[in-house]
Amino acid sequence: MKLETNEKVLAMYQAVCVLIEEGYDIHKIKVSDITARAGIGKGTAYEYFRSKEELLAKAMQYDFILQYQLLEGEVRRKQSLRDAVYSSFEWLEKNTARKRFAMQLVELTRELEKGTDGIWTGIDCMMQQMDCGAELFRKILQYMVALGRSEDIIGASVPEKMAQLELFSRFISFFVYLQMGTPEGDEEIRQTKSFLYDNIVKSLGDFTPPV
Question: What is the structure's pLDDT at 58?
Answer without folding.
Answer: 85
